[in-house]
Amino acid sequence: MISFASFPVQPEPTRHFPDDEDAMDLDDGDFEAGGSKITWPGETITSSQAYMRGHGTYVESEQVIASVAGTVERVNKLVTVRAIRTKYNPEVGDLVVGRITEVQPRRWKVDANSRQDAVLMLSSVNLPGGVQRRKLESDELQMRNFFEEGDLLVAEVQAFFSDGAMSLHTRSLKYGKLRNGQLVTIPPLLVRRLKSHFLTLPCGVDLILGLNGYIWVSKHVKESEQEGEEGFDAEAVYSNRNDFIDDSTRTAISRVANIIRVLASHFVPLTDTLLLEAYEWTVENDTDAKGLLSEDVGDALVATITARV
Amino acid sequence: MGSRVEILNDGGFRSDGRRQYELRDMTIDLSQQGVADGSAIITHGLTQVLVSVFGPREAKMRSQTMHDRANINVEVGVAAFSTGERRKRSRGDKRILEMAATIKSTFEPVVQTSLYPRSQIDIFVQVLQQDGGLLQACINGTTLALANAGIPLLDFVCAVTGGVHSTSPMLDLTLLEENDIPHVTVAVMPKTGKVTLVTMETRLHVERFEEIFRLACEAGKVIHAEIKGAVRERTSRLVGAMGSGPPRTGGGGDDDAMDEY
User: Fold this and answer.
1) Interface with A, mutate which of B28, B242, B254, B259 (most A CBs under 10 A)
2) Residues of the domain holding B122
3) Cβ separation of A20 and B225 shorter than 8 Å?
4) Burial of residue B146, with CB atoms counted within 10 A of its CB: 0-12 exposed, 13-18 middle, 19 or more buried
5) Is residue A49 part of a domain?
6) What is the ipTM score, two decimals?
7) Interface touch B242/A189, C-beta < 8 Å
8) What is the CATH number of the domain that holds B52?
9) What Gene Ontology terms for biological process does this UniProt record contain (chain B) (predicted)?
């Protein structure tokens, strides 16, 4: 496993104990001004008489106090703190990439980088032999033919259970089992909501940006070769075998994957334009996938593309 | 006395050149360690501890899932090379298990576990070097790692060790001092001044306790300033890095944008 020590702490020349007890004591005028105020657990944000507490805060002795480190956000009277690093908080309609952890009666458990495993019901997947087909007992008995432990899939958040666990569905031809590629994990905050989370880069690489921070980088599949509504081909959709992937595509996949890793280690939010710029930069500078992971190359890459965009 | 080191000499200095109430130098590193959701390396003088936090995540043990709150699981590992004489401690060592249980009970009232029903928060403490004040380093490190993982805390927990040499109280003891004099570890939440942990392994005169306890609570505020500073710097750095990318399309106005559809 490759990991980065992002933001190594620079040795501080002087030791000091800043006397900043009042630094964050927001008076009302200051608070109205908004902006990204930074806060941390135990820091008083405002009075609970004038404001309502939202996520990342709690109320004690008539004060709204932050419980996580992050930025203070305010919508009218509601004060929330958006944590800078946290687990994925699902919302209905989000596109996520997950991994099957368990097969249970009529459902799969899916790890989706959330606080609990997600649930994928047998009734929320497309089964071979027509989209509208009823579920039979035989389907329950052969659930492992569709998804097995360890399989990766792309799905949409359908609903929530009472305890906050999410329920997924793959009832679209865009969703389903993943193959021909590799998974990259980044902090979920770095994946922004985009018009489409299915990207195709000109270098022959498809990307699925899961909002949970799981990103699938795979070989490009042409539109025409994708299984159509009529010819729902169970063999192809639930296949465990990779297609043939040529060397140049393999290189491109690992290059894109490493670009994402480098950007994530520098905490740069992902967008399609940023990825394209970065890919062009690596081609211009003739950097191979492995070279990208060295610290100076990564720093240079991030410095260049964040300046450009 | 002869070869024995003086705990506190006539000039009011301790064996490592500190004054009575002086704390050792603290360094904090909050950078990402491997795949942990939050991690911290903290040093108090020569004591160094690495804490990694995973979660909240699906509880792997069914028996430990609680339907109304998250379960906190603490595991402590002591590196064989961390002490003066090389010694391998097994994971089942009673002292280590006790320390893990202490850390767990210190943080249970501080972490807002009720927000994460049926989940589990794993805290892995790895002791890299020890020179006294081990529990204090473990607790401070855990606070930092939890904050770094974005787990909601009521407040930072700041721990410090205090001891007494004849009648003079001292703070932040080294191993040498810990072996010689009675000591007590106190963990405070500086915001409210609440104390989440007081623990002693030695006998301490009851008359001396109050003074040490009060001093340790004061020292907790100093450690709080350090912890706060480190978390603030890390957070503002990350916020800065996020801002250096293209402007957010959604951002805080996510919900407003949705209303238009």
Assistant:
1) B242
2) 26-237
3) yes
4) buried
5) yes
6) 0.83
7) yes
8) 3.30.230.70
9) nuclear mRNA surveillance; poly(A)-dependent snoRNA 3'-end processing; rRNA catabolic process; U4 snRNA 3'-end processing
